[in-house]
Write a structure and sequence with these properties.
There is one protein chain. It is built from 4 helices and no strands. The chain has one domain. The protein is mainly α. The N and C termini lie far apart (46 Å). Helix 2 crosses helix 3 and helix 3 packs antiparallel against helix 4. The chain is elongated.
Length: 125
């Protein structure tokens, strides 16, 4: 019984450690992907609604996020396929609202149509 409890506790600690690692690595990937994604979408979103812009950013950012994830994991951090997928998903969740906020603030290009900047910032958060 004691071995079973100890095994369960070890498993829980391992999962928590993995979650912390994924969180940390996804932040790094999102940060490293930001400039590449903003350059990629600059000037391409004029005439799009907020929803279209969000989808466009998500679609265009995928390649850059995967590239940055591969670079990060190749630099010594090991990760299984599950961890890699989790990093990519979390980095995308972090990056898209950040790019949207920059877009609406006028730091990238054209803001989405029919959305006031204050409303877009609330929606992007």
């Amino acid at each position: 019984m004691f071995k079973q409890i100890l095994s369960t506790l070890t498993s829980i600690q391992s999962k928590q450690g993995q979650q912390r690692q994924v969180e940390l690595l996804s932040r790094q990937v999102a940060e490293q992907s930001l400039s590449g994604v903003t350059q990629l979408i600059a000037g391409s979103t004029s005439g799009m609604t907020l929803c279209e812009t969000r989808g466009y950013i998500r679609a265009r950012s995928g390649k850059e996020i995967r590239r940055q994830t591969r670079l990060l994991l190749a630099s010594g951090t090991t990760g299984s396929g599950d961890i890699t997928s989790a990093i990519i998903r979390k980095a995308t969740e972090r990056l898209v609202p950040r790019v949207l906020r920059q877009l609406v603030a006028g730091q990238i290009g054209h803001a989405p149509q029919a959305v006031k900047p204050q409303a877009a910032l609330r929606l992007a958060a």
